[in-house]
């Protein structure tokens, strides 16, 4: 029997996370969701206890509430940074210490966004946090690549998920489809398949990279609606 790979999903209850779990059939999955750990509570995050030594870490959590910059409450700014960035930093410190101590290799994949490269009205907090995730990817890849830790990002464009339908009107979605070279939204299973490709161990020299899956909208001179 094939040995199960130990994989941590942070935010696995998302639509993409649900699709990913369906195809990771040879993985022992530890999910860290809001019911297990409040990522907005950094004290709890720092004190999180785990006996699980991961071979893969996948970060899917996202706090995304579109709003004009000056309209954000202080509490919303703190929540966005805690959930989308600071909690990951502290969890990675915990996980990487265990990986190094046990001399294990590990794939780390962070789900970013086209907003990791672009700006858009009403997306200040989300965009800033996604930019920060790319900083994690590039710096940790440089720092730990030599000991077998690979860190990459998958940046979806407009994916057909509950979040997309919540944050965009039907007219906006229709306009995005028209502007996309592929004339469609991205399917969540496609994002899951790219993540699986990065963690399956067949190719070990993709490190510190961002893979964009967006139906071509970012190369069409168009973004958003």
Quick structural summary:
The chain has 225 residues and is of the alpha/beta class. The chain contains seven helices and six strands; from the N terminus they run βαβαβαβαβαααβ. The protein is globular, with a radius of gyration of 17 Å.
Describe the fold and architecture.
The protein has 225 residues and is an alpha/beta fold. It has a single domain (5-159, 188-216), classed as NAD(P)-binding Rossmann-like Domain (Rossmann fold). 40% of the residues lie in helices and 15% in strands. The protein is built from seven helices and six strands, in the order βαβαβαβαβαααβ. The protein has helices at residues 15-23, 42-46, 74-101, 124-144, 162-167, 170-179, 188-199, and strands at residues 5-10, 27-32, 56-59, 106-111, 149-156, 210-213. The chain has a six-stranded parallel sheet, sandwiched between helices. α3 links the parallel β3 and β4. α1 packs across α7 (188-199) and α3 (74-101) runs parallel beside α4 (124-144).
């Amino acid at each position: 029997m094939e040995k199960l790979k130990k994989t941590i999903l942070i935010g696995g209850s998302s639509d993409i996370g649900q699709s990913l779990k369906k195809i990771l059939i040879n993985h022992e999955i530890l999910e860290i969701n809001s019911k297990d750990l409040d990522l907005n509570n950094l004290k709890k995050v720092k004190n999180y206890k785990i006996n699980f030594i991961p071979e893969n870490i996948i970060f899917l959590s996202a706090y995304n509430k579109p709003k004009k910059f000056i309209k954000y409450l202080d509490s919303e700014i703190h929540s966005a940074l805690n959930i989308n960035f600071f909690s990951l930093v502290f969890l990675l410190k915990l996980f990487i210490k265990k990986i190094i101590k046990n001399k294990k290799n590990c794939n780390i994949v962070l789900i970013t966004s086209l907003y990791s490269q672009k700006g858009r009205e009403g997306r200040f907090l989300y965009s800033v946090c996604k930019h920060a995730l790319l900083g994690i990817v590039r710096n940790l890849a440089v720092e730990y690549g030599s000991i077998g830790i690979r860190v990459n990002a998958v940046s979806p464009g407009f994916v057909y998920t509950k979040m997309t339908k919540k944050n965009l009107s039907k007219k906006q979605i229709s306009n995005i489809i028209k502007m996309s070279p592929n004339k469609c939204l991205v399917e969540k299973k496609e994002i899951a398949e790219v993540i699986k490709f990065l963690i399956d161990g067949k190719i070990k020299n993709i490190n510190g990279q961002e893979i964009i899956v967006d139906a071509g909208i970012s190369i069409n001179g168009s973004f958003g609606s």
